[in-house]
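Q: Sequence in, structure out?
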Amino acid sequence: MTDAPGWWGQIFNFTDYGQLVVLLQNSILAGALLGVVGGLIGVFVMSRDMAFAVHGISELSFAGASAGLLLGVGVVEGSIVGSLIAALLIGVLGSRARERNSITAVLMPFGLGLGILCLALYPGRSANKFGLLTGQIVAIDTPQIGALLTISVIVLVGLLVVWRPLTFASLDADVAAARGVPTRSLSIVFMLLLGLAVAVSVQIVGALLVLSILVTPAAAALKVSSSPLKVPLLSVLFAVVSMVGGIMLALGGSVPISPYVTTISFLIYVVCRLIAWGRKRRGVSGRMPVVAHPALGAAVETRAAGEPVSAGVAAAAAETRTGVDAV
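A: Exactly. Output:
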């Protein structure tokens, strides 16, 4: 019979827990910052229907990280290169949803196969190989933490710069283009930011479970709110809770961090879905269009009144134009 206390102790073991928390403060900080990045960029991933693309980028990120490990040039650097190549390919060649899905489906098995090849040729410890798939933030060193923090800040600053026009383009690309928004350039910029976010996430939760940070929190937030302010805030909150909670639990066990992060993220989504179901049962209005900035609030209001989304976008375009010019 399986020794239940034995495997339970591997999952939850809080001996010397206080000392571990002090030693890994930088890891906890990096996890919290990644939660902010994942929560914010996840709103656009959902509004642009790019969850599948995230998975495709993560496979190329895994391939790049594996190549970096094999060649000795650094896992973080290799992961970034792989992510950016995938993001550019998907952004440039997959301008339409069908094309994007096709490109992603082609890149995924190639990236996974290339990554497995590099890991098979790597003569080092198996723990390093396993960590690329399942995450290893507890084991990464100070230089890697610094690189993750730097990349996270770059992604956050980039998102803030393009937030308003990107929101406009995500809501209705045709109307945005008609109003002078450079939708094609914005799409490529967003893909590059997404590539960097994926590269950071791979270091934390591994290549196989990136969706738990870049998709699930935003999907959960959209189940309980349609507010242009609340959705990003809730998404960030859910992502940070998943990340920090996962790291804190991983400190007390001998298993990788990813099961903790993904479980917390999944439970949050289930709770939000139950809340949405309860509201629907009571006759409360459910999900509304994805809007991520107050400048586009008119789009939500006009749709609630029965008008087409494009009418709302056009009404909000004048206010959004300032943000477009800034970009």
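The chain has 16 helices and no strands.
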